[in-house]
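Quarterly update from the structural biology core.
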Amino acid sequence: MKNMTCIVCPFGCKLQVRPLDVDGMEFDIKGNKCPKGLDYAVKELRNPTRVITSTVKIKYAHLNRLPVRTSEAIAKNLMFKCMKKLDFVEVKSPVKAGDVIIRDILGTGINIIATRSM
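Predicted structure, tokenized:
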């Protein structure tokens, strides 16, 4: 049995998850107060994803780092590869919030976008 806390809504339900098969793809989930908890637990167990927030170097701006994020959640197992790639990125000012800094990072179809104008 695995214990999780659902982070989808403010309830923060304490979920108890028990795998129902050897592959670990079917689960018995208890403790959720709404259907969102079921969806969250299944997604988190089958294919966990995270939105990455970070910074990249920027030239000709009043600051030397530009805040960026993934346009949507990326597979958790790709987080460190993505961060490593961001280490070598340098953009030039001007940049507007929402501008695509890297298109299709790691072949995922997910973009890295600026979260601030500079």
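The first strand starts at residue 2 and ends at 5.
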